[in-house]
């Protein structure tokens, strides 16, 4: 089951300036499904991070952790990726991204 891809995300090529802020360059538009869903995500014991939103992409979409996305008039950084598969299948059905709101984009 694949979610409807009713939104458009802009995936920006980024660099960092002298102050450590992201500087956005060119972008690529990607179809996605976007929701404001908060969820606690954690990769390290005793450390919790709460996502600000989630986005779902087609399985062939080139999206990676730490990518900078512009969706619904805001910048988000991909904090965690899940490649969803059906039980007993290696085929990826969709990509689920946990997003953190980003500020300080030039």
DSSP summary, beta strand count: 8
Largest sheet: 6 strands, antiparallel, barrel
Question: What shape does the CA trace take?
Answer: globular
Side-by-side strand order of the widest sheet: 1-2-5-8-7-6
Indicate the structural class.
Answer: mainly beta
**Element pattern in H and E:** EEEEEEEE
The N- and C-terminal alpha carbons lie at a distance of 37 Å
Question: Which blocks of ≥5 consecutive residues have pLDDT under 50?
Answer: none
Helix percent band: under 10%
DSSP summary: helix tally: 0
Average pLDDT level: 86
Strand content: over 45%
Taking Cα atoms only, what radius of gyration do you get, to the nearest Å? 14 Å
List the helices and strands and how they pair.
Blueprint: E1 7-16, E2 22-35, E3 39-41, E4 49-51, E5 53-57, E6 68-71, E7 74-85, E8 92-102
Structure in words:
By secondary structure, the chain is an all-beta fold. Helix content is 0%, strand content 58%. It has no helices and 8 strands. The chain has a 6-stranded antiparallel β-barrel. The model has no long low-confidence stretch (mean pLDDT 86).
Task: Please tag this protein with its features.
two-stranded antiparallel ribbon, mainly beta, single chain, globular, 106 residues
């Amino acid at each position: 089951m694949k979610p409807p891809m009713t939104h458009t995300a802009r995936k920006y090529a980024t660099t960092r300036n002298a102050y450590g802020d992201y500087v956005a360059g060119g972008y690529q538009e990607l179809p996605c499904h976007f929701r404001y869903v908060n969820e606690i995500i954690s990769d390290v014991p005793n450390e919790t991070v709460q996502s600000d939103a989630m986005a779902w992409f087609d399985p062939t979409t080139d999206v990676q952790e730490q990518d900078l996305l512009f969706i619904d008039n805001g910048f988000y950084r991909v904090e965690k990726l899940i490649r969803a598969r059906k039980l007993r299948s290696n085929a990826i059905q969709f990509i689920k991204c946990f997003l953190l709101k980003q500020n300080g984009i030039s």
